[in-house]
Amino acid sequence: MKLLIRSARIVNEGASFEGSVLVDGGKIAGVYAGAPPRLPEPGNDVETLNAAGLLLLPGVIDTHVHFRDPGFPRKGTWGSESRAAVAGGVTTVADMPNTLPQTTSIAALREKNAIAAQSSLTNYFCYLGATANNVDLIAKLTKDDAFAVKLFMGSSTGNMLMNDDKLLNRLFAECRLPIVAHCEDENIIRQNTERYKSVYGAQIPFAMHPQIRSEEACYASTKQAVTLARKHGAQLHVAHVSTTRELALFDAGEKRITAETCPHYLWFCDEDYAAKGAFLKCNPAVKSAADRAALRRAVAAGTIASIATDHAPHTPDEKQNPYLDAPSGLPLIQHSLVAMLELARQGFFSVETVVERMCHAPARIFGIRNRGFIRAGYAADLVLVNPRAPWQATNENTLHKCGWSVFASCTFSHKVTHTFVNGKMMMNNE
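Below the sequence we write its predicted structure tokens.
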């Protein structure tokens, strides 16, 4: 059946207006401003959903997730994490390569895609990870082979850390896909770690995390990546930018070199380690209140081009280890959109900016066709949000398989009520 979503507040392409959207065959058949179009009576092949009072947004495209599948079913699976994703209004994800096996070959990429095809509720793409041994392969890749290449210039598992200058120059010179870089200088981090171990032994306070994975480590690595990209004309997207200093390396509107940040860098700061401890430990580290304020301004100004989550679930028992043994990573995908809309409500940027950074920009940066916008002929990836439905996130109402959220105890004004993926209703939480 056709579906008419009528009388919503549509937020799309910098505008906000009352209107309706007609969905037919998994695609957007029409976008209508003002009064709903004259269509056959409901029951004659048209179903109507009255969305008066609700926001209608394009589905969120999250280009940075770790769904942990294959290899880590205790932490998450394509089924569990995509369920949390649609509950949060996310309709498309791009999964990182540090699974088991690591996604560093075409065979591993095909295996992961096959798993996702069986159980993901979202649209999906998968990265291929760069290693010292697969630069020849990466040089041959096209968009038909992989979504993009993930480069770990710091903080990697297995053999995916790449900090050899010769190999990095080759990669940036020969890769034809977007390079998404985790930028932290591993040597600086190791030196900082040894310094704090000499003071605290094995009991390093979690509050020291932003001193160990420091501003200096982030800036040095990000500067190196940006320099290499400009030298070779590569397309570079720097993941999870966390410091004020890094922002000077980017220009708003630049298309080949772009920056991403995440909701937790915009919401939390180093003062929150006292209460959250390991449950705020992520790489790069959440930094100071001044960094948080600068990142918020950069989102509004466009210096930060896109928002992604770096959704990375770990089990509570893993997180309850001492600092050196507690893994880094936060489950975020269920609450990313409502957190960003809450920051918009507080006046840091507009709802239109949230849609630009979370929906439009990821589609443009990564060349995702026919998604990320509310346009006739595009896939009907759509989200309805009630902007006046306060609720509190808890560990009990999270859908992440790990059973917790860094946003637990936070109150949000916006509530995702419906999520449509390719025209199919994947979540209804009226």
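The radius of gyration is 21 Å.
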